[in-house]
Amino acid sequence: MESRIPQEMRAVVYRGPNDLRLEQVPVPKIGRNEILVRVAACGVCPTDIKKIQTGSVPPPRILGHETAGTVVRVGSGVTGIRIADRVALHHHVPCGTCHFCAHGDFAQCATYLRTGVTAGFESAGGGYAEYVKVLPFCLPGVVRIPSRNTFEEGALLEPVNTVLKAVHRLGLHRGDSVVVVGQGPIGLLFNRILTLSGHHVFGVDLLPRRQKLGRDWGATATWNGSDPTLAEQVQKRTRGRGADTVVLTVPQDGPFHTAFDLVRRGGRILLFAHTLRGHRTPTDLSIVCVDEKTVLGSYSSDLSLQREVSRMVFSRRLDVRPLITDRFPLERTSEAIALAALASPESLKVVVAAQP
User: What is the DSSP letter of 3?
Assistant: First the structure.
């Protein structure tokens, strides 16, 4: 039996650069092949922070895509999903049949590039609202949350998926050495997943507190990113070769250029945070050609990994709960965004709770 659902709901509407407003908006109406979810938790993602701070997307929108909640309405054509199911949502799902999907480049699929979870206006995730609608093509991304697990764990499936996808793209050999630059929430997830996969991890961050966290989450050693002997330290730990891979979870130019000094000949540099269009930086291309140092990117998630991600998170083999340090009610979403943007030593993952 359906829950009693209001006609209107609270939502945080993006109205322009650094302009978020708590407003009353209509609760989304669903079609026969859609579902309605009452939002319980939504993680704050750096990509949403960039959109809000730079105004890179046109308003109005209701952002937030690391979303978990309870199914409260199910369209007549939907099977396998029931009212009262506790679920995590996947806002991007590929078609599975196009040229990009055939090559495993799911994030480049035209269907994937559409956002299939919305709270109104242009579909944009909608997690900073009380209810969201899941469009038909994103129903395969709905994941049930086991009774022993929290909504917050469900909300973190999406960021964990993006990290696991990136690790898969690296083509590492067991025992390879990886330097993870940036020991914030994403960097720490890289540390843990790489360690669980049998790799040697070293962390780099400017903040001493985060350097310690990096070791707690699996790094054998961590260093200050401004240390002039950083390359020497990596050489010592890798028998003079350099790291097999350097992962950049920060978008600044300095770490990018330093990565070429840290990675071995024939090694790889992964860009994970360079999501703003138009960012250019000069590079000595002979390093790429002659030294065969590869620069590659990884963006967003991979639905084919969702079962593996769910097992890791829900079994707590990868326990994401300690990653969540700050929780804000929906009406304080602006504060949540501001805190997440600070990269302060004490704050890691910030979550907005739409419901009390």
Answer: P
Count of other CB atoms within 10 angstroms of residue 230: 19
- Residue 122 DSSP class: B
Are 48 and 64 spatial neighbours (Cβ–Cβ below 8 Å)?
yes
pLDDT band at 356 (very low <50, low <70, confident <90, very high): low
- Rounded CA-CA distance 243/144 in Å is 39
Between 2 and 31, residue with greater pLDDT = 31
Q: What is the CATH number of domain 169-297?
A: 3.40.50.720
Q: What residues form DSSP beta bridges with 117?
A: 134
Domain(s) labelled CATH 3.90.180.10 in the chain stretch across 8-156+320-353
- How many angstroms separate the CA atoms of 194 and 230, rounded? 21
151 close to 40: Cβ distance less than 8 angstroms: yes
- 303-312 pLDDT per residue, tens: 999 999 999 9
